[in-house]
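In this section we walk through a basic example: taking a raw amino acid sequence and producing a predicted 3D structure, encoded as discrete structure tokens. The instruction is simple. Fold the sequence below.
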Amino acid sequence: MRWVPFVAARINGRGRSNRLRGKSRLKTKKRGTPVPVLPVLGIAVGVLALTVIISVMNGFQLGFIESILEISSYYVRLESPPPISQSGGLLEKIKTLPGARAVVPFREVQALIQGDWGQHAALVRGLNPQTWEDDPLMAEKLVFEEGSFDLEDGDSILLGAELAARLRVDIDDMVELISVNGAGFIGGTIPALDEESLAGTSETLFTVKGIFRSGFYEYDLGWGFINFDRAGELEGEAYTIGIKLDDRFQDKKFAAALAELVSTDYADSSHGLPRVKTWRDFNRAFFGALRTEKLFMFVLVGLIFIVVGLNIYQAQRRIVLERREEIGLLRAVGAGDFSVRLVFVMDGLIIGLFGAGSGTALGLLISFNIAAVFSVLESIVNAILYLLYRGGGFAVFSPAVFYIKELKARVIPQEVLLIFLFGLFSALAAAWFASGKISRIRPAEVLRYE
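The resulting token sequence is shown next.
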């Protein structure tokens, strides 16, 4: 098979022959290139577009997913464990399980928070003061615009930035937390905050010690944090244990080990057997919607490869017809159908490698510098708007429309490799099918008049 690349380079790099009708045939050599420009450009644009779009989409989606996992749902949850005083060191036992990175007990309070200028429903989570050190992944996601993670005082509360803006409160301001525990505001409008309406609720005052942003609007508008013990005073001793893992995709294996632990040590507990759940059980619809959105975007942008593949197919069919004499000669000297076919498939391989390689390289370059690229694009558009209309202020992702502090792209190597292979194999497949007519070429008929 060593002759195949040599013959492929000779045939595909010679240029095209022009046939003139008449008794004579005139062949004029054109100074060509072994790599057609348009097919290479088409594959490069497709790979570039798909790489950048998927990377930016990953940045958005993984930002939302990680905010949910690191702040809200955790990787694995142990629900309804025995009271801490009767748990027999359950937290320490969980920490010894392979793969456990952080073990965080918490309580949740459905509450109405009222400031001087308004009120808003919120989910208030009770955490221990040392959670900031025990759970660095949560600490990485919570960015405090004012104050800090200070829950040493039982009267401290931390609020999301949008919630604080809605209530018009600032650091060291007082807010009123009204916890509904059974009676109260179910199935109707929130009543006025008088003594009669507060029956069946727990009411207390808290001091705002921190205002944070998580990057997820729902949390910034509807979440708060208070001291773990103080939350127990409002909602009782019930709590949940959230667990972070070294690898969140090992959640099923860890959940099985955790279930075995609690079934062995707490099977006879009067509080019942704790329930084990993983992050796959929470927000299933939301994660499924993100996956479907990404899949459809992948398919839609991937249609570029079909168009480019058809272009390569037509070009390769034309080459096969133009090279009938060379094909007949190769067949006459003993080359098999498959070997001759590979000569033309090599052309598709070169097109695919050049196009997919250049598109991948440029796509990665843009993805890793996406913020700078959008900044340059916005500057150019604003300069044009200023020259034409004396205006400006254009932003691709305007803060007035999108809840985005900064634009990030997340490159996943497996997806980049898959996109590269799509571009490469679209060219290979087109060349393979286009060269199918080689098997129907008969050397004797082709060479009869040569």
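Looking at the output, two observations stand out. DSSP finds 15 helices and ten strands in the chain. Residues 284-322 form the longest helix (39 residues). In the next section we compare this with other chains.
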